[in-house]
Automatic annotation (TrEMBL):
The keyword Membrane does not apply. SUPFAM superfamilies: Chelatase (SSF53800). This is Coproporphyrin III ferrochelatase. Pfam families: Ferrochelatase. It is found in: Cytoplasm. Fe(2+) binds at residues 183, 264. GO terms for molecular function: lyase activity. Involved in coproporphyrin-dependent heme b biosynthesis. Catalyzes the insertion of ferrous iron into coproporphyrin III to form Fe-coproporphyrin III. Its EC number is 4.99.1.9.
Length: 316
């Protein structure tokens, strides 16, 4: 029996490949409004602080390749071919859908490389893929909305947190806190009952449970400077309160809203959070990000294979 050909549309944020890409990239993030020179300089300075470019482009491609390879090794019913579609820089999501159409793909699964669903974030990836597919007419895409409940995703983070926890002397565990973070979003998402905050909370609780850790807290990071309120507490404020009120001396950072090393982790966490934690006389730790860890790739593969059950339904 011949295998069913499935397009695997992997959607991710995207990052500038070189300095000249920063302005168009940032303009795309701001929905076509060019940032001020001051904002551009500030972003350029942050990229310079992490070595000029972000490793995100390389890591996203590696994740896409590893996932397709793993999916094809795990089962014999389907052949997956991956297509990378980015939100704010080429190759764009629309181009990836057009490439699938050109290759004769009829059935596809899409997945965003972000664990938690928000109408503000993941839904915009999905809308762009679905509207291009509708425009072209020939492809049916099953879009995964979130995959934070995947057991191996939780296991990955639990193992990485536990590895750091175990390096800290037992008698200092009382002074150790695990701080879970995800990207902040404008507070107005709460008005429509967006599931994002609850999904982030559930992820943190599942990791705490699996890693058997004591003290933990949750905060939001990398909020935009748009003049409207964003979800809080902000991570920098939370660090100050935890240090002041609870006297913690070890801070383990888990940016569970992200899946690889990039600007938000390497700058916002590893530089800004670290500087603050150390200036307050405490120690900073940040476990390895999921990147292409086999447990993490297996978690994504499991989510995709689950979504394939819906393919059968829509193919009938
Ligand atoms: O190049 C890199 O390594 C960094 C890539 C990057 C990731 C990322 C993830 C998320 N963002 C989310 C929401 C917003 C909202 C705004 C916003 C702004 C920026 C800017 C840069 C940037 N984001 Fe991002 N984000 C990454 C990069 N993000 C650069 C612009 C300068 C700045 O504020 O730092 C505010 C837009 C506005 O001004 O109107 C909102 C969310 C995620 C996690 C989910 C996902 O990956 O899709 C949510 C990676």
């Amino acid at each position: 029996m011949s295998k069913q050909q499935i397009g695997l549309l992997i959607m991710a944020y995207g990052t500038p490949y070189k300095k000249e890409d920063i302005v168009p990239y940032y303009t795309a993030i701001r929905h076509g409004r060019r940032p001020s020179d001051e904002q551009i300089d500030d972003l350029t300075r942050r990229y310079e602080a992490i070595g000029g470019v972000s490793p995100l482009a390389r890591l996203t491609q590696e994740q896409a390749d590893a996932l397709a390879e793993r999916l094809n090794a795990l089962q014999t019913e389907y052949t997956f071919r991956s297509y990378l579609g980015l939100k704010y820089i080429q190759p764009f999501i629309e181009g990836a859908v057009a490439a699938m159409e050109k290759d004769g793909v009829k059935q596809a699964v899409s997945l965003a490389l972000a664990p938690h669903y928000s109408r503000f974030s993941v839904q915009s990836y999905i809308d762009r893929a679905q509207s291009k597919a509708a425009e072209l007419g020939g492809i049916s895409i099953v879009s995964l909305k979130s995959w934070f409940t995947e057991k191996k995703f939780i296991e990955f983070w639990a193992n990485s947190v536990r590895a750091i926890y175990d390096q800290i002397p037992q008698n200092e565990h009382d002074q150790t806190v695990v701080l879970f973070t995800a990207h902040s979003l404008p507070e107005r998402i709460l008005k429509d009952g967006d599931p994002y905050p609850e999904q982030v909370k559930q992820t943190a609780l599942a990791i705490v449970d699996a890693a058997r850790i004591g003290n933990y807290a949750q905060a939001w990071q990398s909020a935009g400077k748009t003049g409207e309120p964003w979800l809080g507490p902000d991570v920098l404020e939370e660090i100050k309160s935890l240090r002041r009120d609870k006297k913690y001396t070890h801070f383990i950072f888990c940016p569970i809203g992200f899946v690889s090393e990039h600007l938000e982790v390497l700058y916002d966490n590893d530089q800004r959070c670290r500087q603050l934690v150390e200036s307050l006389g405490a120690a900073y730790y940040r476990p390895q990000m999921p990147d292409t860890d086999p447990l993490f790739i297996d978690a994504l593969a499991s989510a995709v294979l689950n979504a394939c059950q819906d393919l059968h339904v829509s193919a009938q």
